[in-house]
Amino acid sequence: MLIPPAHVAAPLLAGGVTLSVPIPLAIALFVVGLLGYALINAIEIAVIASNRLRVRAAAEEGHRAALALERLRATQERYFAVVVVVQNVCVFLASTAGAIVSISSRMASLSRSR
């Protein structure tokens, strides 16, 4: 088993303070990040795959969803910028929470083996 020297394993926060996140909270944040990423990708694919002619015809008939989609398509740059930012936040949340769970479970197994 490799244990890094003390000077390599620096504390997470200044002054030797460690960051403690409860495991149930980390798991919940992981699930929220994962579901958020899936949801934003599903929305992005639905917007891109929608038929422009059908949406335009429905918007002319006054359907609210079609009108909203037409407005969204009118500002595509902003829409895709928001999609990318939300995707990045979800990935950051899921990966950070997953790392916390992984490290915590590894530390727990190491403390049990001693």
Features:
114 residues, mainly alpha, 4 helices
Itemize the secondary structure elements and their pairings.
Layout: H1 23-49, H2 52-61, H3 64-74, H4 76-113
Helix pairs in contact: 1-4, 2-3
Please give the radius of gyration in angstroms.
22 Å
Number of domains: 1
What is the helix content?
over 70%
Residue share in β-strands: under 5%
Shape: rod-shaped
Largest sheet: none
Structural class estimated from helices and strands: mainly alpha
If helices are DSSP runs of H or I spanning 4 or more residues, what is the number of helices?
4
Mean of all residue-level pLDDT scores = 84
Folded structure, characterized:
The protein is mainly alpha-helical. It has one domain. Helix content is 75%, strand content 0%. The longest helix has 38 residues, at 76-113. The chain starts with 22 loop residues before the first helix and ends with a helix.
Concise overview:
With 114 residues, this protein is mostly helical. The chain contains 4 helices and no strands.
